[in-house]
Amino acid sequence: MHPLVSIVTPIFNKATVIEETLESILNQTYKNWELLLVDDASTDNSAEVVNGYIQKDERIKYFEFSENKGAAEARNKGTQMATGDFIAFLDADDLWHKSKLEIQIDLMLNENIDVCFGSYELIDHQSNPQKIKVNALQTLYYNKLIKANYIGNLTGIYNCKNLGKIYTKDLKKRQDWLLWIEALKRSDKPAKGIKETIAYYRNANNSLSSNKFNLIKYNYNVYRKGLNFGIFKSTVYLLRFFIEHFFVKKKLIQPIA
After folding, report:
1. CB proximity list for 159: less than 8 A, separation 6 or greater
2. Exposed (0-12), middle (13-18) or buried (19+): which is 251, by Cβ within 10 Å?
3. What count of other Cβ atoms lies within 10 Å of the Cβ of residue 221?
4. pLDDT tens-place string over residues 136-191
5. Mean pLDDT, all residues of the chain
């Protein structure tokens, strides 16, 4: 049994790296997939680069916004277009290990899992390893995920047949966290993590997070605007987030030889 996997990839001015991203999808050992490219009104030649791939492979589909709408709208459009039983995400500058989909689909089918994610490593703008790995938890429950985002979006995949399509709110940042919170809220099972590296995150700014003020603002908005918590509850969860992020989650980030 090889169910169809829909891969959603937003694009905005990624002409210099999108080709490598597409190749990492084409090289997957799991072949039953469709790729939904959503161009968020790029002003570079991203469309020209991807057009060559579209002509060669009918599994690749392309949609272009006439004006820039942001990552949330682009992902939501790709989700709307998806026809697969599973939905996965890969940004236009990140990469997948060639066995990524095969490993996850095998695990999800064998263990009847709705949500799966995995460990990933950091690369720079030239795809050189930064020798840093972000390890995935083996098991992840809703109550743990709501404290801090433990799912790297480039590794996440969910069973759309069981959970339905999940659309995220249009926040400037952290929309992906909201999506995975909703996925675990809908499922009656925890998410399962893959220990080995299954993806590579392009860490162009040599940092895992933005400045501290933005970290406060964006994460508060997840609770206040994304989850519609009241002001007091959002503040309490924000404090819990920082405790979880700095004293628990950071231990999952480790240097590698």
Report:
1. 85, 86, 108, 113, 114, 115
2. exposed
3. 19
4. 999 999 999 999 999 999 999 999 999 999 999 888 788 999 999 999 999 999 99
5. 94
DSSP 10-59: EESS-TTTHHHHHHHHHT-S---EEEEEEE---SSSHHHHHHHHHHH-TT
Model pLDDT, residue 30: 98
* Strands (DSSP E) found in 40-186: 60-64, 86-89, 95-96, 115-123, 129-134, 139-140, 157-159
pLDDT tens, position by position, 33-53: 999 999 999 999 999 999 999
The DSSP code for 252 is G
Dihedral, CA of residue 126, residue 127, residue 131 and residue 137, to nearest 10: 140
Q: Is the dihedral of CA 35, 83, 155, 1 positive or negative?
A: negative
Cα–Cα separations (whole angstroms), residue 104 to 70, 109, 199: 28, 9, 12
Residue 157's closest CA among 1, 46, 8? 8
Specify the residue for token string 């098991």: 139
Q: What is the pLDDT of residues 77-94, one digit of tens each?
A: 999 999 999 999 999 999
Q: What is the pLDDT of residues 99-118, one digit of tens each?
A: 999 999 999 999 999 999 99
Retrieve residue 1's tokens: 């049994």
CA within 13 Å, CB half, 24:
24
Q: Which of residues 72 and 4 earns the better pLDDT score?
A: 4
Q: Are strands 157-159 and 86-89 parallel, antiparallel or unpaired?
A: antiparallel
